[in-house]
Structures are given as structure tokens and as C-alpha cells.
Design goal:
This protein is an alpha+beta fold. It has 5 helices and 7 strands; from the N terminus they run αβββββαβαααβ. The chain has one domain. The strands form 2 sheets. It has a 5-stranded mixed sheet, sandwiched between helices.
């Protein structure tokens, strides 16, 4: 079983516990769930996060992914998006939630965007990135480790994890539950 499958199963179990704890949810209609995965690996040569010295990627062992799962029951839909990066830039999270609400109809307050805190992910924002970027520009006139801006790319990728389409793959999901006293 892959890490993604284990994460999805864990999230489903957690949501099932929450649903059982709220009896009104049991009568709100069928419970649906869907998932999507999009690769967010930057190109080789991009600056990596996780250390206080500059590290440049020399290759890719495993791709970095943005994984999403959507739960829907009745008129309530929620999404969890988890990215293989060290942290989420608040601007990316805010704009992604806003556009997910507009484009997919999932209320922004029902969208959670998180990071796995991967220390081999791109260093695409923050004070350390700014320091390395300014030093490269001063030294070389441009920053060869940032041939493209990863920030808008990440925002686009998060919005493109349209997990509503994955309902066609999974269809309605039945959550079995019982009370143990």
C-alpha cells in the first residue's frame, strides 16, 4: 500500500469518526469522497529548502506531489490538500482557497491546504530564499536557480487538483460504523 493510499484511508477513518459523533450527519445523504494527485516537482537546479546553507537540486529520486481528497455529504463539501513542500506560503493558500471556492464551489473555509514539511522540497519563498536570491542577483546579475517563478506555479497546481472529477472514479462511498461500548 502506498503512502498516498495510507493517508487517504487514515483521513477517511478520521472523517468517519467525526460523522459518527454527529448523528445529524448520518441523515444528510450519501457520503462521497474523491482524490486527485498532481506532480509539483520543480526542475533540476532549483534551490532546495530544509537547511541554512544553499542547496541546489541535482536530480529527483521521488516526485513531489500535491494530493487532495474531497468529502461531500448533503450540501456540505470539504477538501484537504497536502503538498510535498516544506511550508505553504500564506499568499498561495489564501488565493488557492479563493479560486477553489469560485471555480469548484467548495467554500473557502472548508478547504485546508497543508505541507508535509519535506526538507528536500523547493525553497520558493521566505527570508532564507530572499537572502539566497539577492546574493545570486548581486553576484551574477540574475538568479540561475530560479529560471521560473515557482510561487504562481504552485498556486495553479493547487487549484488544478479538481477532486470533484475524481468522484466519477470512486463514486458514492459507504462509511460503515458501529458503536462499541
Amino acid at each position: 500500500m502506498t503512502r498516498v493510499q495510507i493517508s487517504i484511508m487514515t483521513a477517511c477513518r478520521l472523517l468517519a469518526v467525526v460523522c459518527v459523533a454527529t448523528p445529524s450527519v448520518l441523515f444528510a445523504g450519501p457520503f462521497e469522497a474523491g482524490t486527485a494527485t498532481v506532480e509539483i516537482t520543480p526542475p533540476v537546479g532549483y534551490r532546495m529548502s530544509g537547511r541554512f546553507h544553499e542547496r541546489i537540486s541535482a536530480g529527483t529520486k521521488d516526485p513531489l506531489l500535491a494530493k487532495a481528497i474531497v468529502f461531500s455529504q448533503g450540501d456540505v463539501t470539504a477538501a484537504l490538500v497536502c503538498c510535498d513542500i516544506i511550508e505553504i506560503d500564506p499568499r498561495v493558500a489564501h488565493e488557492s482557497r479563493r479560486l477553489i471556492a469560485v471555480e469548484l464551489g467548495i467554500a473557502a473555509e472548508n478547504v485546508s491546504i497543508a505541507a508535509t514539511h519535506a526538507h528536500t522540497s523547493p525553497l520558493y519563498w521566505g527570508a532564507l530564499r530572499d537572502q539566497f536570491h539577492k546574493a545570486a542577483v548581486a553576484r551574477e546579475g540574475s538568479d540561475p536557480q530560479e529560471v521560473f517563478d515557482y510561487l504562481p506555479l504552485l498556486g495553479f497546481v493547487l487549484r488544478s487538483t479538481n477532486v470533484r472529477n475524481s468522484f466519477e472514479i470512486f463514486g458514492p462511498t459507504t462509511v460503515h460504523h458501529h458503536f462499541v461500548l
